[in-house]
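Q&A log
Question type: sequence-to-structure
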Amino acid sequence: MNTLLSSPRRLVVALVAAGALGATGAGLITAREVRAQAGMPAAAAPAPLSASVALPDFSQITARYGAAVVNISVSGMRKASDAEDDDGAAAQPPRGIDPEDPFYEFFRRFGMPGMGAPGGRAVPMRGQGSGFIIDPSGIVLTNAHVVKGASSVTVKLTDRREFQAQVLGADPKTDIAVLKIDAHDLPTVKLGNSRDLQVGEWVLAIGAPFGFENTVTAGVVSAKGRSLPDDSYVPFIQTDAAVNPGNSGGPLFNARGEVVGINAQIYSRSGGFQGLSFAIPIEVASKVGQQIRATGQAHHARLGVAVQEVNQALADSFQLPRPEGALVASVEHGGPADQAGLQVGDVIRRVDGQPVVASGDLPAIVGQAAPGQKVQIEIWRQGQAQTLAATLGNARDKAAPVAQAEGTVGKGQLGLSLRPLAPQEARAAGVDKGLLVEDVRGPAALAGVQGGDVLLAINGTPVQGVAQVRAAMAKAGKSVALLIARDGDKIFVPVRLG
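Response status: OK
Response body:
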């Protein structure tokens, strides 16, 4: 089978039949002609998937906007223990030590004997990344981690001119930085809208992987709204376009040649591309970039809660129709959530109409709002939907943590031996009231509950005595959610009862 791409780049499939070549001289005839010559009935036409099957012309996008993509080189000084490249490559290995030596990794991290602690001395740092011009007067967008710790930033254009860049500001929470170079009448990209992106749609990345400038790679949108553990302020675009160290900060184009994201991260076990790339939506980057250009910094809102993921066991415990939302594990006293009436055990499902499916959606939505903004929060409490109004605070005041669920669940009875807290035990645990777990077995042990934990609530209902535990368990279904205090943290632990 041969594949012919003809103008306007529509995919044409033809068959080559020995002794039955068409009169075009190209050796290609259509499947219908083959069937007619062989006396076969015409095949039924397949139903079209869409009105157009045109493939994007990546060469035209590259020719038009490639000159607006720049290479960024940085240099500076870092502590030896932090000597990594811009995309997190490991520090230089110790000389004279066999990589197979069992102490190789120890010496790589902490230095050779007799050389002193590496963290106490500074070493030269160099790195490379990418960026793109958004204003002809020399404004460049890139990643904050590309220029982190740099004392010198050089921007190189495709015409080989180089400029010393000024870092106007960087926002680590969204990984966006804005640079300014002393140049005029520069080529620029066209900014698009990532909200219109569809999963499966073609995208194009341009950057400088491993220093190879103006490298073009293509792929499709694999998913949208991805929440990554260390970047909860950004709903990432996941693609399978090849992105490698040095691509950081480069643009992600849609098939119309519009920038829809900034390539920022990859998921890799090897350090190289393995099919999972993540880009910051251009709306997030543009909003942060505008704030940096205006004030030199970005502003993010906060709600003042710690949340955790809702799995099926927790959904069953709270009578949720689906395992979706952000489960409130703790509420900051006097914070915006506390003032709005949010309680531990509430499940946040929407903020100003935006759905909260995974717990990571909440900080991404709130973090992009402005401090002081009023929002409507749809919650699930005691088996019913409610709506609260909240005025968001400033993320600079205090960061809101995200709790992580622990352990697994099993079947059987609850299996807890409990007693009331003594006053000194309550002070040591940092709680007012609760029940001390003296012994744990069965499903509670399998779920991760430990002796010494403090039980605060069951399915969102506070418990201060064994009788309240029994009453809560009498109304429980197939699973319960135990609010546990441990080492100063609070977290819901789902326990499957059977």
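Response note: The radius of gyration is 29 Å.
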